[in-house]
Amino acid sequence: MGFHRTLTALLSHLPKSRQTLLFSATQTKSVSDLARLSLRDPIYVSAGAGEATPTTLEQHYAVIELDKKLDTLWSFIKTHLQSKILVFFSCCKQVRFVYETFCKMHPGMSLMHLHGKQKQMARLSTFDKFTKTKHAVLFATDIAARGLDFPAVDWVVQVDCPEDAETYIHRVGRTARYESSGKAFLFLMPSEEEGMLEALKSKNIDVNKIKIKASKQQSIENQLQNLAFQDSEIKYLGQRVRRLPRIWPRKSNLGSFLDIRRIPTFNPPSEEQGYLQARRSSR
């Protein structure tokens, strides 16, 4: 917890005889350590103990090859124009690339983006706008996974597999808040399916597998390719995304999610192949 030192200093100035209430969205080691320092014989009160996700949340996943992820995301957005959607990616460069390209393709609803490389005022402005908008898509990194309360989010879409089950829980927690309903959709590559499902099962989380019909999916490869050749900024972003290494795992605790035998070899495309093959290395 980032405020541990500051809170400890504040507690040292409080009177010894007092009533203290400590509220925390998560129960981490830092929170437990702080409780031991500041509380005497504490009584723990938990909301929804034993349930990692609310019963009003519908959870789905699909196995999607890496080079089909943006096709699937675009098709999903086009068929949910009357929804409020929060889309998670693993890094800032992916968020910027998808936001800039999708904006130029005009899906028919408002698009926004939120990531850690933005200035604070820009993040606050995006948060306020998305909060007040009824139908919109927000592309975000995990900066939006904790501590933000977006009202009436219909769908949480995870284009990239979360690093662990806890991150999954925090991401889907942006919808189905309080007594509202919501839906979650997780994209998994074949190499991620078995490990991620096991991790979720350990938290008593059941996600339903769905199969996406090819006839319902719109390919946007040519559109993205044309944008890259016509717009130098898109070309630049595509190059930056393309040069991201295909990392399995992104973080050490993700290793158990992956079947190493099913990991494809990463071969960066040549310049002649076009910058839109960047999406094939978008993770």
What is the CATH architecture annotation?
A: 3-Layer(aba) Sandwich
Give the helix level as a range of percent: 25-40%
The figure for the number of domains is 1
Label the overall shape. globular
What is the ordering of alpha helices and beta strands?
HHEHEHEHEEHEHEHH
Major sheet attributes? 7 strands, parallel
For this structure, the CATH topology is: Rossmann fold
Descriptive account of the structure:
The protein has 283 residues and is of the alpha/beta class. It has a single domain (57-281), classed as 3-Layer(aba) Sandwich (Rossmann fold), CATH 3.40.50. The chain is 34% helix and 12% strand. The chain has nine helices and seven strands. The protein has helices at 4-11, 29-38, 69-78, 92-105, 120-132, 165-172, 190-201, 221-230, 232-242; strands at residues 57-63, 84-88, 110-114, 136-140, 155-158, 182-188, 208-209. A seven-stranded parallel sheet has the order 3-4-2-5-6-1-7. The longest helix has 14 residues, at 92-105.
Keywords:
single chain, alpha/beta, Rossmann fold, 7 strands, globular, disordered C terminus
Topology:
Layout: H1 4-11, H2 29-38, E1 57-63, H3 69-78, E2 84-88, H4 92-105, E3 110-114, H5 120-132, E4 136-140, E5 155-158, H6 165-172, E6 182-188, H7 190-201, E7 208-209, H8 221-230, H9 232-242
Parallel strand pairs: 1-6, 1-7, 2-4, 2-5, 3-4, 5-6
